[in-house]
Amino acid sequence: MKRSFLILFFLAVSNLALAQFTITGKVLNAADNKPLENATVFLNKTNYGAKTDQQGNFTISNVPPGHYELVVSMMSFKVYNVALAVKADTKVPTVIMEEKSTSLNEVKITVAKKVESKYMEMFKRELLGTSKFGRQCHILNPKVIQLNFDPKENKLTAYTSDFMVIENKALGYRLKYLLEDFERNEKTELISYVGYVLFETMEGNEQQRQEWNENRLEAYTGSLQHFLRSVLGNNINKEGESGFVVATDTRSPNMSRLADTLIKEKIRLYSGKYSKIDKDSLFFWTSMFQQPRYIEVVDTTKLIAKEIAQLTDQNGLYALRINNDINYIKKWIYIKVPGKKGSISFTCDTCEFKNSLYVTYIKNIPARLGNGYKMPSPRFKESFTPSPELDKMASLISIYDGHVLFDWNGVVVNPMSLKVERYWATQRLGDLLPIDYMPTTESYAK
Questions:
Q1: Which UniProt keywords apply (predicted)?
Q2: Interval 91-145: pLDDT, tens
């Protein structure tokens, strides 16, 4: 399928991408100030890396300009990482590596305690993902994975003692992944993991390389990086084209839904009881649990690029913008609520609300979202609900604190300030591409 907007972006940044620089530096042991040989030095989420020599020196060549995270790793030492902006040949200040100190308790947990295989499968599922690309990933050295399950907290945690090697046969990459921390918590219903990855391109025949290129383009299309690049290329909300639809999503707490802790407590209380009163009570609390946590609407106004991003005073960085001044729920008289027939009347002038960016990728961007533009009333009657096609790859972006900053390459430099939900939140290591990935002109024409 032809993707003309990708070609425009590729041409716009080609001069930047073609420039290549060298990163040099030295790694020392903090204990004796002597050089560390054979330490792995790499740029996180790229295929640019090197090993230190006998003098502790390293050289990483052919690096495109951009904002990176430099990572230094060596067995028995703490991982060193630092943000790095590459605009020319760069010499990194001397890296001082500190040895790890492992407590007796940590040794007991990870060595003496065996973890059931079902938890290993759960770990792999959550880390690699269940997409068609994630299912084709294989961990070649699972012995480096240190797992622990706490039955009291119902929490699975993990880290790796060395690089975990993951072979992604769908995308043609071998990932060396250093997992610092992984947690799957059933109580909070949250999954989090922190790690560093170095890509290696796999060798293959012509047919395999063609399949990998097609799969990589599929993984890239509709991704967060693709979206940020499209914003900078002013290639969003283009009627009749394949691309991104971007609008504003407003959420307000559903005041008729009680706290999760109370709902779950009541469900446990009435489960397994068979009197009519108990069954009615169980039905009530189960229905309460199924209610949405938020009253939510997607505004019908399609945003333009300059409303979403602006150039900052930091060289080469852009700030993501979300307008939190307008409560779009007030635009509608009736609100459609998922799981309920019809719609409800919702008015709450004092309720808190939060706006996010509603972002989705579709093949044919419509001229308008919903039918709201045809109504003469200053308040439209019934809220707009995205179609299944719109919602298929829909994500929500919100900002925790301050600003979300990203560079020309679509790389977010302060990811802890960014929250993504829905489609992008389901992406795992199996869908990951190097941050300097650029679709080839051969891929565009397909």
A1: Signal
A2: 999 999 999 876 544 443 444 345 568 899 999 999 999 999 999 999 999 999 9
